[in-house]
Amino acid sequence: MSEAKGEHHYTVTVDWTGNTGTGTSHYKSYSRDHVIRAAGKPDVPGSSDPAFRGDPSRWNPEDLLIASLSACHKLWYLHLCAVEGVTVVAYHDEAQGVMVEDPARGGAITRVTLRPQVTIRAGDDAALAAELHDKAHHFCYIANSVNFPVRCEPRIVFAS
Questions:
Q1: If you average pLDDT over residues 138-142, what whole number do you get?
Q2: Same structural domain for residues 132 and 116?
Q3: Does residue 1 surpass a pLDDT of 60?
Q4: Same domain, 52 and 72
Q5: Structurally, how many domains does the chain consist of?
Q6: Which InterPro entries does the UniProt record give (predicted)?
Q7: Which CATH number goes with the domain that contains 147?
Q8: What residues make up the domain containing 147?
Q9: Beta carbons of 36 and 50 less than 8 angstroms apart
């Protein structure tokens, strides 16, 4: 099956590795560990959030969703800066998400805030650099795919 123009397909596998010998015979009898794989890429060790008996040393789905939003925004932002003549020399984001448990649905991420600190070349247009975050958010594939607000609180600094 070929992809339609402008349509992209992504295939990953998730293999549960948490059978400790008795499967899911009881809520506490199994590990939440799994491995996320995609052809030609390193494996990602996954689990659930530690609040739900997960391994805190492994990535959980909530971490990965927030990381995806942050990375997508960053990639669009860097692209737009390159096109608009703003030279970014460093980019660091401390993204944060909030998940609220809901007995009827299990829970949901209710909001994510991106807090990128962007270092631009001395003399570049800091106002334009700040404005490009709005444009990046508009184009971000992941942000356009979620049903909760994604805010961006950028900080622009000049390289010394």
A1: 97
A2: yes
A3: no
A4: no
A5: 2
A6: KH_dom-like_a/b, OsmC/Ohr_fam, OsmC/Ohrsf, OsmC_Ohr_Peroxiredoxin
A7: 3.30.300.20
A8: 61-158
A9: no
Cα 115 to its chain centre, rounded Å, is 13
Which distant-in-sequence residues (6+ apart) come within 8 Å of 15 by Cβ? 34, 35, 37
Confidence of residue 92 (pLDDT cuts 50, 70, 90): very high
Dihedrals φ, ψ of 34, to 5°? -155, 170
Q: Give yes or no for a contact between 149 and 114, defined as CB atoms under 8 angstroms apart.
A: no
119 and 77 in a single domain? The answer is yes
DSSP 142: T
Secondary structure (H, E, C), 88-139: EEEEEECCEEEEECCCCCCCEEEEEEECEEEEECCCCCHHHHHHHHHHHHHH
Q: Answer for the pair 109, 98: CB distance below 8 angstroms, yes or no.
A: yes
Give the containing element (helix H, strand E) for 14: strand 13-16
pTM as predicted: 0.92
Task: Tell whether 48 and 84 lie within a shared domain.
Answer: no
pLDDT digits (tens, 9 = 90+) for 27-73: 999 999 999 999 999 999 999 999 999 999 999 999 999 999 999 99
Mean pLDDT, range 100-119, rounded to an integer: 96
**What is the arithmetic mean of pLDDT over 117-146?**
98
65 contact partners, CB below 8 Å, separation of at least 6: 97, 109, 112, 146
